[in-house]
């Protein structure tokens, strides 16, 4: 069923009782052409593009919990293309272009809002870095505007510009950056994949990967063995554990990242604001809650919850940037498990095991990557060739030393 304004109006008139579930709940078949492990953003978008662009529809997405129970439903929803290094910049640029047409493509309202994202600068050195980043973004074909003190004062009147420790020198505005509703992205891709025949199988944990003579044959799950021509790993947060089932050791650590939301307030913060020097970023949701977060909890964990010292650290950073936030009541906090690669950049690659494909290492940036990653991973699985926008995300770079060390993204304390 396609959604339309008339349909929404009609359902409203009839008490909204006629809506049907938007995906089926099938039992697993004995064999699929492609089995995708993990029903987060990357697994669902990969399944969608496999079916839509490559006509590969005998596909199952196996999710150990419910669809969207991982970080796709736990992130702070920021979408941007302000990366600097070759490899990352063309990939995120490609992904942002897909975002800009996503609602039309999926016929689903993902509430993509290009409200602008600004990175603040608090020293001459940081302003030089922002200018360099802005130039790289523009050379890539994306937008960036370097703001001076007065520009920041005009657009962000609510922050403490003269803070003794973090005086504001300027900022880098990326107007095409913004936010999107994270759950809706998972649901939109899930619906699109299901409509094209993909089986979305929930409560189905993969417990083993079967490999015979160097060729992948299928997976063992809590719902029995499922044969597969190809197996694709998109189990962010648990990539190392799942890859170990096939005997692979990945250069990835799992860490917790927390986020916070306040009670609903009247519109006060129209943009996404990143305060890198204080480890703090913030935006306002459409319901009015101030959504903010900071740095990793800094210890390895698979627990989807955080600790109190980080709550204190993030709250202090928020107060340093915008003292008015102290008046808002915090409603909730939560944590998600991050797949931290050692250079801060992801992996989309084949493995030495024929038919086994990797998609992992998204660090804190995997939400904005969802469309580009699904598109590129589907291309790799279907054709065996790397998508041009993602051809630098090779596992071998950790062996050869050709890392894509985008400062501030990796599991290393290089956050400024
Ligand atoms: C607090 C927080 C804030 C963030 N903010 C942003 C942001 O603003 N912008 C941004 O771009 N990114 C952000 N991120 C990062 C982003 O959310 C992640 O990088 C991205 O969601 C990871 O990819 P995914 O959606 O596929 O992961 P997930 O949704 O975690 O999907 C992986 C799935 O695999 C499943 N799985 C694991 N093991 C198995 C198994 N053995 N069998 C079957 N299924 C399995 C899990 O249950 C899970 O559902 C944030 C993350 C967090 C936690």
- Mean pLDDT score, rounded? 95
Distance between the termini: 47 Å
Structural class: alpha/beta
Please give the count of helices: 11
Q: Describe the main β-sheet briefly.
A: 8 strands, mixed
Share in helix? 25-40%
Q: What is the third-level CATH name, the topology of the largest domain? A: FAD/NAD(P)-binding domain
User: Residue ranges: pLDDT <50 for 5 or more in a row?
Assistant: none
Q: Quote the beta fraction.
A: 25-35%
CATH architecture of the largest domain, by name, is 3-Layer(bba) Sandwich
Total domains:
2
- For CATH, the homologous superfamily of the largest domain is named as FAD/NAD(P)-binding domain
Q: Whole-number radius of gyration?
A: 21 Å
Give the number of DSSP strands: 18
Listing every helix as H and every strand as E from the N terminus to the C terminus, the arrangement reads HEHEEHHEHEHEEHEEEEHEEEEHEEEHH
| Bound ligands | flavin-adenine dinucleotide
| Basic shape | globular
Protein traits:
globular; 8-stranded mixed sheet; alpha/beta; 416 residues; FAD/NAD(P)-binding domain; 2 domains; binds flavin-adenine dinucleotide; 18 strands; D-Amino Acid Oxidase, Chain A, domain 2
């Amino acid at each position: 069923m396609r959604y339309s304004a008339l349909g929404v109006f009609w359902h409203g008139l009839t008490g909204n009782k006629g809506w049907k579930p938007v995906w089926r709940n099938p039992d697993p078949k004995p064999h699929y052409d492609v089995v995708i492990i993990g029903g987060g953003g990357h697994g669902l978008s990969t399944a969608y593009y496999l079916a839509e662009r490559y006509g590969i529809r005998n596909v199952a997405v196996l999710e150990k919990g419910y669809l969207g129970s991982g970080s796709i439903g736990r992130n702070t929803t920021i979408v941007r293309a302000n990366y600097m290094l070759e490899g990352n910049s063309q990939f995120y640029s490609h992904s942002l272009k897909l975002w800009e047409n996503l609602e039309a493509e999926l016929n689903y309202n993902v509430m993509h809002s290009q409200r602008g994202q600004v990175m603040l600068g608090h020293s001459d050195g940081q302003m030089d870095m922002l200018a360099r980043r802005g130039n790289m973004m523009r050379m890539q074909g994306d937008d960036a505007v370097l703001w001076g003190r007065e520009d920041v004062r005009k657009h962000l009147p609510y922050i403490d510009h003269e803070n003794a420790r973090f005086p504001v020198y300027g900022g880098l505005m990326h107007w095409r950056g913004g936010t999107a509703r994270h759950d809706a992205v998972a649901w939109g891709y899930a619906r699109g994949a299901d409509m094209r025949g993909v089986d979305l199988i929930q409560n189905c944990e993969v417990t083993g990967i079967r490999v015979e003579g160097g060729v992948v044959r299928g997976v063992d799950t809590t719902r029995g063995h499922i044969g597969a021509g190809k197996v694709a790993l998109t189990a962010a947060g648990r990539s190392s554990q799942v890859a170990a089932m096939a005997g692979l050791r990945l250069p990835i650590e799992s860490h917790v990242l927390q986020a916070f939301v306040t009670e609903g307030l009247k519109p006060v913060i129209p943009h996404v604001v990143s305060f890198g020097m204080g480890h703090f970023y913030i935006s306002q949701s459409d319901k009015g809650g101030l959504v903010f977060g900071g740095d990793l909890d800094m210890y390895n964990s698979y627990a989807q919850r955080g600790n109190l010292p980080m709550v204190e650290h993030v709250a202090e950073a928020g107060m340093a940037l915008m003292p008015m936030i102290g008046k808002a009541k915090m409603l909730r906090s939560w944590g998600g498990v991050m797949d931290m690669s050692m250079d801060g950049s992801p992996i989309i690659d084949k493995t030495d095991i024929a038919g086994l494909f990797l998609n992992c290492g998204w660090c804190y940036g995997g939400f904005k990557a969802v469309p580009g990653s699904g598109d590129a991973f589907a291309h790799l699985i279907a054709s065996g060739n790397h998508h041009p926008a993602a051809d630098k995300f090779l596992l071998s770079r950790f062996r050869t030393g050709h890392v894509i060390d985008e400062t501030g993204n990796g599991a290393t304390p290089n956050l400024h």
